[in-house]
Design goal:
elongated, 4-stranded antiparallel beta sheet, alpha+beta
Length: about 110
Amino acid sequence: MGEAERGESAPRVRVPFYCANKHEVVPSFAHEAAVPDEWDCPRCGFPAGKDPQNPPAPPRTEPYKTHLAYVKERRSEEEGRLILDEALAKLRADRAEVRAFMRANAG
């Protein structure tokens, strides 16, 4: 396929971006398109900026947290105790109801 089938190419501009690992990526953009401030480095995945002397900092990775750790961030121990007591009371009531039903229908 040539330009006759696809139409004329839009004028392009190539902009270099640099990541913290000193990688350089040079994507091309349509001349009238807005060029972003950052671009993802295809080699390492870090953000890349336009200033080779001052690339964006790598993303800070958070350590793995358990479900319990996230819950403890949102709830105090007292709130947790209240929720647990409520759940246990409901469970005990449900079990008592099942036992009563079984006794009533035994035989």
